[in-house]
Amino acid sequence: MAALPLMKLIRLKGVPILQQLHLEERLLRTSPHNWCIINDGTNLPHIVMGISGKPAELLEINSVLRDKVPVIRRFSGGGTVIVDTGTIFVTFICNKDDVSEVQPYPRPIMSWSSLLYSKVFQGVGDFVLRENDYAFGNRKFGGNAQSITKNRWIHHTSFLWDYEINNMAYLKLPKRAPEYRLARNHLDFICCMKEYMPRTNFITRTVDALQGEFSVETTDLEAVESPPNTKFIHSSKILTERELEEAALG
Amino acid sequence: MAMRLWASKSASYLKISVFNRGFATVLKDLKYADSHEWVKVEGSSATVGITDHAQDHLGDVVYVELPELGTAVTQGSSFGAVESVKATSDINSPVSGKVVEVNKELDDSPGLVNGSPYEKGWIMKVELSNNDELKTLMDSDSYSKFCDEEDAKH
């Protein structure tokens, strides 16, 4: 039987989301290894848009500016989320040749990830991949995004273990929404994972599911943080107040 | 299906040889990279885009990140990206040279990459720095076989 490909696992807690995104993009583009990064909550609420996100279309900018909520444009595709201590992030970075049964395109990668998570949620709720979201029934609890390079890809997910109802008010109803959303507002569309599974159970079951496909080796953040003179240029950036003000003016 | 019919009609009008490999169209007078970009060479100038196979697998393109004019591109390296579904996907240059024109139509109409990958969905024009590199690219027959083999593996 062929040996399973190696996957390095980094387990984080409360790491700022911008730091996580910088780490992910650098590993995607400069590392030869497969990685799983799990960040159990991020320290402060942030809005995170996809690469082509337009603040005027996606955000209640005046509220965002008033409350000084940081807005990040990330390097991967996909939609807008507001993340905080109640969000659990799980990221897979893979060499396409190590997951050779998966064609390196969005839908096959999404399909592969949903099979992995179907093991995590076996016997728990009514887990289903709905278009590009993870849902229990027709309520979304996990949003996905990807970035695909020539020989590698990243698939990252923000899981709503819990959320602040007030924070959802910063997000507009997006123009590009999945059909199953049926024009529901945020609170009718999403649900919390905490109603289905304890936090630590989810993380343990995710690592267990990974071990079915990879030889998982835990490593720590210090071992992978880039030295100070590294020249890697990150795409994920916090939008300035000026950029948001200009977007509000249209 | 409508895409294939449209492609055949357009090809007849433009007097380009087209053959259908069943699902995605491949044009005979272009060269192809194994990362699914095409290049049309006219002297020392080249037009670059992504293939019908690529656009079909990527899904509806909602955004194209175009390179800046004057950027140096290197064969095999990323020069831009497309966003489709929830993914950004790198576009890799099949040739080396300097970007002299980009298709600004894609800012407002990124779907041209899906609807017209070889014509209106072109992405950039490059002033070539090394015509010899073209020998490393696939012709339409080889690319067609390459796509079949890739799809058969999955």
SSE map:
The complex is a heterodimer of chains A (250) and B (154).
Chain A: E1 6-14, H1 17-30, E2 34-42, E3 46-49, H2 55-58, H3 61-66, E4 71-73, E5 81-83, E6 87-95, H4 106-120, E7 127-130, E8 133-136, E9 139-148, E10 152-160, H5 186-189, H6 199-211, E11 215-219, H7 221-224, E12 237-238, H8 241-249
Parallel strand pairs in A: 1-2, 1-11, 3-4
Antiparallel strand pairs in A: 2-6, 3-5, 4-12, 6-10, 7-8, 8-9, 9-10
Helix pairs in contact in A: 4-6
Chain B: H1 2-14, E1 18-20, E2 25-27, E3 31-32, E4 37-42, E5 45-50, H2 52-58, E6 61-65, E7 72-73, E8 78-84, E9 87-92, E10 97-102, H3 105-108, H4 112-115, E11 124-128, H5 140-152
Structural write-up:
The complex is a heterodimer of chains A (250) and B (154). Chain A is of the alpha+beta class and 250 residues long. Chain A is built from eight helices and twelve strands. The mean pLDDT of chain A is 93. Chain B has 154 residues and is of the alpha+beta class. Helices cover 27% and strands 33% of the residues of chain B. Chain B has five helices and eleven strands; from the N terminus they run αβββββαβββββααβα. Chain B has helices at 2-14, 52-58, 105-108, 112-115, 140-152, and strands at 18-20, 25-27, 31-32, 37-42, 45-50, 61-65, 72-73, 78-84, 87-92, 97-102, 124-128. Chain B has a six-stranded antiparallel β-sheet. Chain B has a three-stranded antiparallel β-sheet with strand order 6-8-9. Chain B starts with a helix and ends with a helix. Mean pLDDT of chain B is 88; it is low at 1-22. Chain B: It is found in: Mitochondrion. Chain B: InterPro entries: 2-oxoA_DH_lipoyl-BS, Biotin_lipoyl, GCV_H, GCV_H/Fam206, GCV_H_sub, Single_hybrid_motif. Chain B: The glycine cleavage system catalyzes the degradation of glycine. The H protein shuttles the methylamine group of glycine from the P protein to the T protein.
